[in-house]
Amino acid sequence: NLGLIISISCITTGQTLSKDNINYFSKEYNMEENLPISDFENLYAFHNDLKNSEYSQPVRNIAKILFYELVNMQTKNRFAIDITRKKMQVDFTRLHLGGLEEFEINLSEQDIETLYKLLEQSHITNWKTTYDDPAPGLKISGNGYIWKLAIQYNDGTAWYYSGESSPGNPLLPEGYEILVKGLNEFAESKKK
């Protein structure tokens, strides 16, 4: 499992790990002793390794958040937030998601409350799961605006939101801009 995580190309950084790096990480990280810090790798994969929740649960049930945007195949915003461990990573890499690098930002109880309020103001529990433009060729051409929001709840189940549309006229749920602006402002405040 660890080998699979490490050998996958690092999409978010545009680099791949060499065989030497894989051997280094294999020696340094014994899975028995250094388990991944969370299920972010499963959330990132969007292939339902985590059991899907039967419904969108209340915001206060959220344990983990993974959000990213791509504009014309260039990463715009990336946030991984582990509410239960009170950790956050801006511009995460696959190493962060796999648990090989610790998240850099520590969160206080007040920070967690701020995040919950932002999620409530964004009305994410009212969002549809997909916001896709039916225009053909967006995926194939690599042009477009793509966003994904993956949530893991306290019960271990997951819920996924996503959208794909043209950059000039993106299809977005009500409250989406509030969420993105709020996450960016929150991240900036934590850098100080």
Question: Could you describe the 3D structure shown?
Answer:
There is one protein chain. The protein contains seven helices and seven strands; from the N terminus they run αααβββαβαβαββα. Helix 5 packs antiparallel against helix 7. It has helices spanning 2-7, 19-28, 40-45, 94-97, 109-121, 138-141, 176-191; strands spanning 62-71, 74-82, 87-90, 105-106, 130-132, 145-153, 158-165. The protein is globular, with a radius of gyration of 17 Å. The chain starts with a helix and ends with a helix. Strand 6 and strand 7 (158-165) form a beta hairpin. Helices cover 31% and strands 23% of the residues. With 192 residues, the chain is α+β, with helices and mostly antiparallel strands.
Q: In terms of topology, how is this protein built?
A:
Layout: H1 2-7, H2 19-28, H3 40-45, E1 62-71, E2 74-82, E3 87-90, H4 94-97, E4 105-106, H5 109-121, E5 130-132, H6 138-141, E6 145-153, E7 158-165, H7 176-191
Parallel strand pairs: 5-7
Antiparallel strand pairs: 1-2, 1-6, 2-3, 3-4, 6-7
**Which stretches of 5+ consecutive residues score pLDDT under 50?**
1-37
Q: Structural class, from secondary structure content?
A: alpha+beta
Q: Would you report the number of β strands?
A: 7
Intertermini distance: 37 Å
Largest sheet: 7 strands, mixed
Strand-residue proportion = 15-25%
- What is the helical fraction, as a range of percent? 25-40%
Q: What spatial form do the alpha-carbon principal axes imply?
A: globular
Secondary-structure element pattern, one letter each: HHHEEEHEHEHEEH
Q: How many DSSP H or I helices? A: 7
Radius of gyration: 17 Å
Strand sequence of the main sheet, in spatial order? 4-3-2-1-6-7-5
Average pLDDT rating: 75
